[in-house]
Structure formats: C-alpha cells, structure tokens
Specification:
Layout (H helix, E strand, L loop, with lengths): L2 E2 L5 E8 L5 E8 L2 E9 L5 E7 L5 E8 L5 E7 L5 E8 L5 E8 L2 E9 L5 E7 L2
Antiparallel strand pairs: 1-2, 2-3, 3-4, 4-5, 5-6, 6-7, 7-8, 8-9, 9-10, 10-11
Length: 129
C-alpha cells in the first residue's frame, strides 16, 4: 500500500487521510495516474465521489457525486475519453431533482428538464448539438 515506482510515481493501492484522521481517498494508481475503482471523501467522512478511472487516468463508466450532507449531487456515465455521455441526473442539495437529460461529448443534447429547489418542474429545454 502507498508505494512509489523508481520514477517516484504512485503505483498500486493507495489511501490518504485528512489531518483529522478521516479518509481522503482510496484507489489504485498506475505510473502516477488513477485507475480502476476510486472513492473520495469529504473531511467529515462522508463520500464525495465514486467511480472508475481508465488506464489513462480519466473518469470512465458510471460515476456518482455527493454533497457533504450525504445527498446525491449527480450520477451518470463518462466515455472512454473522460467526457460525460448518455443520461445524467443532477440534484439539489436537499435531494430533489435539479435537472436530467443526455450528454454527448460533454455537451447537453436533446430534451432536458430543470426543476425548482422543491423538485417541481421549472422548464424543459431542447439542446441542439
């Protein structure tokens, strides 16, 4: 755990901690780049994000991000290039839906719904790529 290669880059499984002793992150490195499954945390110990990194150190596949109160902030997928794609949902910090729609190459496309803080629909919009 927490090893460096000959070039001084992080390799293998790592955990780092805040000064208060709570976990900052846990995950694997390859030649200094994040790979595979990772979890990152707020200093209060609550989860901040979780998901996978590609061998190139880019977010890939399904990811979830959270507010420091534990509520879900967003969830969706990243492409092999580290760009958001497909269906995503974002939430207000009270847990109500903020917006939902699709991404292509990190840009909103098609119909999106955006909601007020109380979760009621505010408007719908159509993005043209």
């Amino acid at each position: 755990m927490n090893e460096l290669n000959e070039a001084g880059n992080k390799i293998g499984y790592w955990e780092e901690y805040y000064p208060n002793g709570n976990l900052l992150y846990k995950g694997n490195y390859s030649d200094g780049k994040e790979i595979d499954y990772w979890e990152e945390y707020y200093s209060n110990g609550d989860i901040w994000s979780k998901g996978n990194y590609s061998d190139g150190g880019k977010r890939v596949g399904h990811w979830e991000m959270y507010y420091n109160n534990g509520n879900l902030m967003s969830k969706g997928n990243y492409s092999e290039y580290g760009n958001r794609f497909g269906y995503w949902e974002m939430y207000h910090n009270n847990g109500n839906l903020w917006s939902k729609g699709n991404y292509s190459d990190d840009k909103e496309i098609g119909y999106w719904e955006c909601c007020y803080f109380n979760g009621e629909l505010n408007y719908k919009v159509y993005y043209i790529s």
